[in-house]
Design goal:
Blueprint lengths: L8 H9 L5 H7 L1 H9 L1 H10 L11 H9 L10 H14 L13 H30 L17 H21 E2 L2 E2 L5 H9 L4 H37 L10 H14 L3 H13 L2 H8 L3 H17 L5 E2 L10 E2 L12 H8 L8 H8 L20 H5 L14
Amino acid sequence: MGSIQDLPNELLLQVMEHCGSDLLQLVKAYPTALSCFSENRKSFVARMSNRFRNSLDFSSFLRPARLRYIRQERNFSFPKIFLIEDKISQVLKSTRHTTPPELHKFSLSALCSMSGLGEDAKLIIDEYSKQALANMAKNPGADFYVTRQSKELTQDERRRFMTAAITFESYCLTFFNRQQLLHERGDEFRQMFFKRYGRGMRRKNAVGRFYCIMFYILQKHRELLSNVAKHLESIHGRVLPSLTDGPQQYLEKSFLNSMQEDYETRFFNHLHYLTSQGLGMLARLQKMSIEELTGFVLTTYLDSREFNYPAVSITMEIRDFPLGTQEDYRPWLPWIYLDDILEDAYNYETGGYEIWEDTWSRAIPFWDPSEDECPYIEHPYSRFFVNQSPVQFWFLYRAD
């Protein structure tokens, strides 16, 4: 029986192409794969690029991939936060390319990081877009309903989803490091991520898509935490932690009790932590067994309680946990423009955010064929959200 080392180069390249970030492990285990890569660099990079040809140019993954890559370096966990921020700033400056980089000259580890990022983004936007279209189909009479001939994304739609996902990943890797909040109160620095879209409606669209991605990821983490709670409840039932419990059992019961008794501030802060870690965190957790997921969630839950970092709210779902950091002195919001989104979406009659829930769950900003203007310009009330200063978020408007 032959092994992978007996494959001809053409077949071996196909295998390597689908390995993503696991390619490094493959070449370490099989020297033949490394030789194949070295001899066919340009061909291999072309193959990797083609996997994402219907969404974004492969080089667009460069910045977030490098931000991912530096976190794997031994000296990244600096004792001083300003050193981490400086390292990140260096990456941002070095990736402001005016010409496309020569990717075939990149190291294998760098290419693997780019490919892994692309696979994570592809997985998440495929799931999100399918869910959004299913939600759209439930109510054909709703505002911004889109009639579709196919469930498959067009190339332009896939590009919009991928652009938002990659921007979200870059933002998370720039402004969050585990429990730490980086570049504190740097609103101008945060606005940089949306300046390339220009002003007016184009920027509003970019912000809306960005936060649609974020809230989809937030919802997926909610579901994962709920699965962990159900798993632990099947083991422990509804019991309080006891000092006579062993360390692991005590931690499991403490987490379960916080879920059962609606200790919402702890829950939402933990949700923020998971969401702020970007695409890779969700992609990784979704692949875990329930036992692996439970172990990971308990560890991060304990960390979020023990580290002396401010809790952060990004939902405004409970009055005692307002948007932003939970600090007595000068609280601030690490997510630029999120307050604008949620304030525009607030329904004063119901006291809720159903409009924003409807917006991100149907991914409304992604189906707009125009980048620079409201797609519903003929609507009799379009002036309300187009001619306002500042320009309104058109996707938060509802006729009734």
